[in-house]
User: Fold these one by one.
Assistant:
Number 1:
Amino acid sequence: MENNQENKSFALPYSVELAASLFACVIILALMYATQGVLLPLLFSILIAISLFPLAKFFERLRLGKAFSAMLAVLLAIAVIAGLSWFIVYESIIIGKNASSITEKVLSVLNRGQLWLESQFGIERTEVMEKLRSQGEKSLENVGGMLTATFGSIGNVLASAILVPLFSFFLLYYRVFFREFFFKAFKSTSQTKVNAVLNKIYMVVQSYLVGLITVMGIVAVLNTVGLMVLGIEYAWFFGSLASLLMLLPYIGIAIGSILPALFALAVKDNAWYAVGVIAWFQVVQFLEGNIITPNIVGSKVSINPLMAIIGILLGGMLFGLAGLILALPFIATLKVIFDSVPGMQAIGFLIGEPEKEHLKRNSTKELLMKWGIVRTPKTKPSIKMDVNVQVDQQGNTPQTSVSYKEINESESIPYVDPAAPDTDPSQNDASESNPKKE
């Protein structure tokens, strides 16, 4: 008994625990930023290993051995990525062969635009060309910095190309070893709870990755069909490239529509083709966000859009393009962890999607009643009866008809002025329920 009382006396307030947890998160983010050269390949390897785990398990059921199954799964992933890269490079080379004709059409479009500016706004061609030249020079000056910030140096790219498959293999091969590490690291916590959290993290990330790959395939087909209907050449290339840009959440399809729209503007005689390309890609993005993704991914990855956008922006600020790709699975993992820690459940609730009760018209009143801020009105059931007796003149048996109606009268909640002196609400209720008879 004395030990329990001492533990209660030394318990920290919730605000102190929350502040300590948030401070720990800030320290962890600072360490991640300082070690991103090794951490980013490791995070990508974790995602790849999670996505390849079902394939490795399938090979293990064929009695191929755990090491060989992990290696074979990684090699198949390398083959798929290499095939996509070859397709993009090959199509780019084919488009580059027609660069001269495309350049002539682009110059003709620019000339028409200059004539329109001169006729409508009185801007001479020399002014337009000087502005375009100055902007082009500034862009060329910043190209090196932009490429370095986005993709990193060639050495980092090659290092990542070697480290990511290597990390993925060991994560698949040593997965049971790593699971026991978490059991040993959290001995004070129930091992059943630790195992449940690990399984939930795997399910959430796996659902996100498999759903993303499936949605990318559907979006690629929709983009390609729309471009074929509009008569745009290299429809498969532009449609697939735009779907790959879905790795950038919320903005990938919009960015992917720019290149085919410029190509349509260059090769077509009418600018409405470019407008049609952008419009179709926006329709595809609407279908993806409201119909395709909710039905495929479902509610397993429950992150509200506001927190997702904030996480994507923070990921881009910290880690560039890699941070944009890793933001959503990282936030989903954090939500699972926060939901399992009592001191961080409020943050996990904030990251998740609102329930239907939060979006109803009278949601504020229901919320106040739920938390006891406003007292729930009581209902007083009563029955109203009407009795009609009819007797014939001949003295026959009287006929009686009875009708009744049940009435639920809601008790009125009196308004209490916070500035008024303390009063007993029950007295107000009594005075309202028992009015004086005149």
Note: Confidence is low (pLDDT under 50) at residues 149-153, 412-420, 422-438.
Number 2:
Amino acid sequence: MPAVTCAIVRLSIQVVLYGSRTHAIDPVVEPQFAAAVRGMTSGAQLGPKLGLIAGNGRFPFLLLDAARAEGRQVVVAAIREETDAEMDRRAAQDSGVTVHWLSLGELSRLIETFQRAGVRQAVMAGQVKHKQIFSSIRPDWRLAKLLLSLRTRSTDMLLGAVAKVLSDEGIELISSTAFLEPLLAEEGVLTERAPDEEERRNIDYGLKVARAVAGFDIGQTVVVAAQACVAVEAMEGTDEAIERAGRLMETIEGEASTLERRLTVVKVAKPNQDMRFDVPVVGIRTIETMIRAGASCLSVEAGRTLLFDRAALLERARQKGIAMIGLPRAELKNQATGSGT
């Protein structure tokens, strides 16, 4: 592998793993690679243009920096109702990034923007709240036609249909983890503390519930206490579901009974997860939400869950004694069919 390519790969791993430095190259850590990457961000390219459909949160910025570290020129379709205004400032610092602001309802304009820019590959990154389908945003003729053609308006159905429209127009939607594989959770215990016996029982039960719920494309997260389901994620999102579980437990009067009230959060990918969109994500905000809600354990699916700001996330979990574990997909399948122990 050429030296410059090695530099890009190593730097891209560094960039996506340490979120606090996502907008700057650290010459102290990687002095021999800094000049090569600065050259790329000043205009030099190694690959075709990439379209980035940016939702909310830090996901779009992490993917943008990783793609730029690989030399890809990025054309950002920033969703006016979701994307952080920081995206404009990011583009102002890098001639390899252009930003176009679009409304959620402007599917035709999205396609035209990418086609004019010569984009043939695109990626979705960042949440677009599912509840927006009930908002006052007016879809253009293309999106309206798409919405009316759907049997259901679940996340997979909606985004899968959008992906099909893009493909028909010569734009391939690729996996949202294509540039962020180092961020995927690995198998095994991720924190200093492993789940205890009670938490493991909660995980075993929660996996069955979470897989069933995810199979209907309702949500990816359940919150469990004493092998009882306290909250199920739907349109509100993971953090809000955890908060709801915490509020519910706070309403219980008196001291704890023989059943423990500690919450365990179980997050899974869908049975047939399309890695192009709606990939499970955990960030520092999720850990902070767990702390406020009184949750002591988090289980995620290894290889299919992105961990943002990993170093800060794991340190915060350590400080509060939170256990985190990444389970292989085979174990999740066993639990979903009731054959796990």
Note: The domain at 184-336 is CATH 3.40.140.80 (Cytidine Deaminase; domain 2).
Number 3:
Amino acid sequence: MLPGRTWRPRSAPCPRLCGTVLASADGRQGGRHPIKKKLRNILVFAVIVAALYLLLPRLVDTEETFAYASHASYVLLAVAIALEVLALLAYANLFRYVLRVLDIRMRLGEVLGVTLSSFAVSHVLSAGGVGGWVVTYNALMKRGVPHGLIFVAIAAQQFFNYIVLWFFFALAIVYLVLVRGGQSIAGYMVGIVLIVLILWLTTYAVYLYRRPTRLRIRVAQLAHLVNRVMRREVVQERHIDGWLDNLFVGMRRMTRHRGAFRTTLLFACGLWFFDILCLWCTFLAFGERIGLAPLLVGYIVAYSIGTLAPTPGGLGAIEGLMIALFVSFGVASGVAVAVVLVYRIINFWLPIPPGLIAYIIVRPGRRPITEGEVESAAGEVGGPFSGRRR
């Protein structure tokens, strides 16, 4: 917002969801049968849930799986739930700190309510987190935050959240190649090539970040390739420039704020750290003492790949990858199935009821993100937020 200029909500030129880079079912042009699409999505969701919690235990020793579940330590499961609460608090504090850097003051309870309601919607209704972003956008708009700052905050939050995950994903891949597949010269050679590739990608990413024009070209090329391979508009190419502008503005504000990078990375690490501890505590509750390396690799690889799945919260993909990896590391199939399904009840399902309650309290409304808002957002962040503060 320019100094001396009064912010007013702009009128919506088109009543459709089009303000996110990831395309969603609600935001596609020409949606002729929205009810049929919703029914289809509900049916797919129900089939995935039935396959996970009804059919999957039958593929292994059902009696063994239920025996492990019946003898689980409820005290340790309660500790696992408490650790998941700490993970959610870390995530809420991450977003709250990003808002603070943008000179937006909100209480932790308010941010936590927005975070929980966003989680509930993204876990039930949308793939790729698009629905959760829209809830966050509407909730903050209702509190008088200019939409330009909202887009910058969401872009910065997602950047720090996933940069930590993908960093550890790279280390996990190196571990899998060098340790699990390093029993031969070919395995070591593949490991060396992979390490060089990761270092080159990191260096090239820094190079592109310092050259925004070239970065836009490469990201647009990558988005075009993804859409061509998937044969549908997975990434909305027309919004790439807007999201990159928001990210650059957020990064500039971070660099000007002393200790901002360190604090945001700390909160982002806290999210993944407490969630991993929740999984580890679930293993202990079932009497399984898994090693640190298999635990980290199974978790990180499953989430890094599973979050790309076109299902709400990576449902189905994360569970399948975790079970397969833990079994490959020597965990009994019955234990792996029981642990992963109970962990996902804590991680995925338990936050939904309080999230729906928070949604009712927050009441974000249903104002759609309109055409051009993402592209114009970064240009409106010209200085500290002078509107309503908390």
Note: The chain has one domain: 67-380.
